[in-house]
Amino acid sequence: MKFITKKIHAYLDYPVALSLMVLPFLLGLGSSNPLALYISVATGIAALILTLLTDHETGVYRILSYKFHLIVDFMVAIVFILAPFILSFEGLDAYYYWTIGATVLVVVGLHKPETAGTPLMS
Question: Which pTM was predicted?
């Protein structure tokens, strides 16, 4: 039941990048470790750049393949899930990272593969 297409993913990327930059301030992240705030903001900036450079519906420069984009998303999800353990995030800081990490894993896991006529490495 994979239903998240390349097009849907493309339109999710900008709001997600913006959320990663804004939510840490709105939620007051960083009480258990200041890195809880900074890592999310830096990841949001990197996600915005990645989206601008990805070859998909909303990519501006379309230099990077969509497959590469999905691999980066997967790696970010793993880092977000592990960060609270490694960096001793507690409370809201930890829950934020676990929630974002799990959500990204679900989105990547529900990615609908490209059809035979459309190569994934375009």
Answer: 0.90
Instruction: Return d(Cα 4, Cα 54) in angstroms, integer.
Output: 17
Dump pLDDT digits (tens) for 71-102.
999 999 999 999 999 999 999 999 999 999 99
pLDDT tens-digit series, residues 47-74: 999 999 999 999 999 999 999 999 999 9
User: Shortest CA distance to 7 belongs to which of 54, 58, 53?
Assistant: 58
Do residues 40 and 96 touch, judged by C-beta distance below 8 A?
Answer: yes
Q: Give residue limits of the domains in the chain.
A: 6-109
Within 13 Å and on the Cβ side, how many CA atoms surround 85? Answer: 7
